[in-house]
């Protein structure tokens, strides 16, 4: 009992000393490490606001870094429509919107930016609503009037992005193994890719045709899917269908007439030089042969082809060796005959010489 009482006294002394030093709340049972690891309420608030879909934001380049930013007036209207988000701030939930934004700026969760291009470009009536290039504003104070604010913290990666990062190597390996797929899988992949490619090209052609027709007839710039070719855009912005508002000046009628004539001439030129039926058939046959070679290739056929090639090479070598041996044998059989003929010719020459010498000797004697 005495030991337990002494332990309780020591614990009480430690807790009182901690309270006097201000390192721990006497009414809290949370250890100091967990309290230190607890996130700041403004950090939680900033993450919640950034992930909310109702806050309109865009991406831009700030000092060679892509950042996500929003406008000051959009933040004010967002907080008016969603006052329940202030509950995350706990004791600071009664702050005004401007004070909350200034607190985010002080905690380096936000940074105020300004547009790099501050003059109206030729052919436009006003500055861009969402500039693509930003720079840091000297005074880090919240404002609604033409002020932009970029998030400085790294956004939490969603689960689908993590799964996608593991999926890319698998997809790369699957593409490399395409030649060994079964024939039906090859056909399915071929027709799927060809269909997607045809859809993209048709969409771009139809989009350009609509733009050209409306621009020539009405003098207005209407681009459906305006961000389909954008280099920096989110997935939601990429497939946006409705065109943006035309803020540029209306083109002159002379320019519209000139491009209309050029378009007609190009169409007539393409129609005049279009390939005939025989040329199209030859091209189709050539492409079908190439596609068939790719689709019909398989490891078994490749191995059998290699074996057949090796068999042909061996047969060729054997026939070559046999012909060499035959030539050597014929050379050996021909050599004795040639020697016999040479001996006979030598004897005949010797006899002729001896007869000539005898006749000459008799003439000399007479």
Automatic annotation (TrEMBL):
Protein name per Swiss-Prot or TrEMBL: Translocation protein SEC62
Acidic residues bias (residue ranges): 341-357
Keyword Nucleus (UniProt): no
InterPro entries: Sec62
Transmembrane segments: 163-182, 188-218, 253-270
Keyword field: Endoplasmic reticulum, Membrane, Protein transport, Translocation, Transmembrane, Transmembrane helix, Transport
Membrane topology per record: Multi-pass membrane protein
Bias (Polar residues) ranges: 19-30
Organism name: Corchorus capsularis
Subcellular localization(s) per the UniProt record: Endoplasmic reticulum membrane
Family: Belongs to the SEC62 family.
Span list, region Disordered: 1-36, 319-366
Main location as per UniProt: endoplasmic reticulum
GO biological process, one term: post-translational protein targeting to membrane, translocation
